[in-house]
Amino acid sequence: MHGPIEVLLGVSFGTIWGLMAQWIPHKQHRNVTFFRWIILFSGGLVALFGAHWLKYDGAGGLATIIMAFVAGMQWRKEGWGDHNPVTKVFTKMWIILEPLIFGLIGTEIQIDKIDPETLGWGILVLVTALLFRMAGTFLAVSCGNLNAKEKIFLAFAWMPKATVQAALGPIFLERAKLLQMTEMYQMGEQILTLAVLSILITAPLGAVTIMGLGPKLLEKKKNEEDEVDGEDSDPENDAQEMDNINDVDED
How sure is the predictor about 203, in pLDDT bands with cuts at 50, 70 and 90? Predict the structure, then answer.
């Protein structure tokens, strides 16, 4: 019953807190962005630490995801889009917090204790999984209006994996150490090694393929190019150029 209770707690707490992020404060409040950010951020902390205190750790992460999802849905009903002010605040926070996550997982790795056999099998498993993932991505987007080049690009663009692996990779080993389950240390180290390998292989490979294949496989539509040209034009300069043309015509 431990698993279902975690799901029930996570969904219930996340839904209630997400609704509260819409009600408090009122949308017309002058500091609505700050208070909504505080409520959502504090709700995540309460969910994670509260679930750990209750010994239902899985409920914390689930509640954090649910509350953000519910809050986002409610804010959209009020007219906020995907790039709302609260999202922008969290994006700026992520610039600082993202390196910390990867730094923490890096401190857990001990190069001298990595088994070459585990390393080899890990790379083989990752490469095989990536091939299946790319094929699955291509099939998943085949039902839309994308052309063949765009489907190929998405198959490569969705290849990088980093954030989830950095967050979840050390958890098994940490729990084993916390419970003093020494027989599980080796398995925990193998999981952590695979998580790091997935980051080291997919993140740079994905970035290179996106930058390299993007200009070759993707094309701008004509209306998008016209919008860009319209945004780049300066009304004052255009007016000045028209005046100059008129002066030349009069001469």
Answer: confident
C-alpha triplet 169, 212, 90: angle, nearest 5°: 45
Each residue of 116-175: pLDDT tens digit? 777 788 888 888 888 888 888 888 888 778 888 888 888 888 877 766 676 677 777 777
DSSP one-letter string for the chain: -HHHHHHHHHHHHHHHHHHHHHHSS-TT-TTHHHHHHHHHHHHHHHHHHHHHHTT-HHHHHHHHHHHHHHHHHHHHHTT--SS-HHHHHHHHHHHHHHHHHHHHHHHH--GGG--HHHHHHHHHHHHHHHHHHHHHHHHHGGGSS--HHHHHHHHHHT----HHHHHHTTHHHHHHHHTT-GGGHHHHHHHHHHHHHHHHHHHHHHHHHHHHHHHHH----HHHHHHHHHHH--HHHHHHHHHHHHHHHH-
Structure tokens at 3: 């698993």
Terminal Cα-to-Cα distance of the chain (whole angstroms): 90
pLDDT in tens, 24-83: 777 777 788 888 888 888 888 888 888 888 887 778 888 888 888 888 888 888 777 767
The verdict on whether omega for the bond into residue 25 sits within 30 degrees of 0, i.e. cis, is yes
The span from the CA of 196 to the CA of 118, in Å, is 13
